[in-house]
């Protein structure tokens, strides 16, 4: 398990050693200054994607950034420690997975309210994978030029090196899970979330 305070001190030390201001590293990493500041203070445990971006901003691999910080092979992420993000348009996602050094895997639970379009997402690098499972409601999942309608209990896999999108065009909320193996962090989303 990685101690958030130790991680924060480590990131701060690496940033200061490179003569980077907080805002400069935040810009290089593509994360907000407030997020980076909270990480450095040990108040926030970043996701794998955010850690990868910070590592990129520091010119390091993720495994190099985390070298020596792992103290336990078993990592527990309590419900209170999970990242909950409410996006424009009213949709909500929760990052369920703990941060594991060198493993670019995320498991996310998302809730889309009725008639909500979460927008488009750009491709990950070749070799990335996404698995989607619908818990309740109906999900319209776009992959490349295709669109797939998934109902409660349905699941789908796609190589995540294609642009993709998520939408709920139904009258009921849609809850689904995404398990993603990410070869590198992707750029910012292509289109903003919007209410359909």
Write the layout of secondary structure elements.
Layout: H1 4-17, H2 22-29, H3 33-40, H4 48-58, H5 62-66, E1 83-86, E2 92-95, E3 105-112, E4 116-121, E5 129-136, E6 138-143, E7 146-151, E8 155-159, E9 164-168, E10 174-181, E11 194-195
Antiparallel strand pairs: 1-2, 2-3, 3-10, 4-9, 4-11, 5-8, 5-10, 6-7, 6-9
Helix pairs in contact: 2-3, 2-4
Descriptive labels:
11 strands; disordered C terminus; 6-stranded antiparallel beta sheet; alpha+beta; 196 residues; 5-stranded antiparallel beta sheet
Which percent range describes the beta-strand content?
A: 25-35%
Separation of the first and last Cα atoms: 41 Å
Our Rg estimate from Cα atoms comes to 17 Å
Structural class: alpha+beta
Total strands: the figure is 11
Percentage of residues in helical conformation: 10-25%
Q: Mean pLDDT, as a whole number?
A: 85
Count of helix runs:
5
User: Which of globular, elongated, flat, extended, rod-shaped describes the shape?
Assistant: elongated
Spans with pLDDT under 50 lasting ≥5 residues?
185-196
Biggest sheet character: 6 strands, antiparallel
Trace the largest sheet across and list its strands.
1-2-3-10-5-8
Describe this structure in words.
The chain is α+β, with helices and mostly antiparallel strands and 196 residues long. Helices cover 23% and strands 32% of the residues. It is built from five helices and eleven strands; from the N terminus they run αααααβββββββββββ. It has a six-stranded antiparallel β-sheet, with no helix packed on it. β6 (138-143) and β7 (146-151) form a beta hairpin. α2 packs across α4 (48-58). It is elongated, with a radius of gyration of 17 Å. Residues 185-196 have low confidence and may be disordered.
């Amino acid at each position: 398990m990685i101690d958030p305070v130790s991680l924060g001190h480590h990131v701060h030390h690496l940033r200061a050693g490179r003569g980077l201001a907080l805002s400069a590293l935040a810009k290089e990493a593509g994360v907000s200054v407030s997020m980076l500041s909270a990480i450095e203070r040990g108040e926030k445990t970043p996701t794998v994607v955010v850690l990868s971006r910070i590592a990129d901003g520091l010119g390091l691999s993720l495994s190099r950034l985390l070298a020596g910080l792992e103290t336990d092979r078993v990592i527990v992420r309590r419900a209170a420690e999970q990242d909950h993000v409410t996006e424009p348009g009213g949709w909500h996602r929760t990052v369920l997975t703990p941060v594991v050094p060198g493993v670019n895997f995320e498991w996310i639970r998302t809730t889309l309210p009725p008639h909500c379009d979460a927008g488009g997402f750009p491709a990950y690098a070749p070799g990335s994978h996404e698995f989607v499972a619908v818990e309740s409601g109906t999900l319209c999942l776009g992959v490349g030029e295709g669109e797939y309608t998934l109902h409660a209990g349905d699941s789908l896999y796609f190589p995540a090196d294609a642009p993709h999108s998520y939408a709920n065009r139904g009258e009921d909320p849609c809850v689904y899970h995404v398990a993603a193996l990410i070869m590198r962090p992707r750029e910012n989303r292509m289109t903003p979330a919007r209410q359909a």
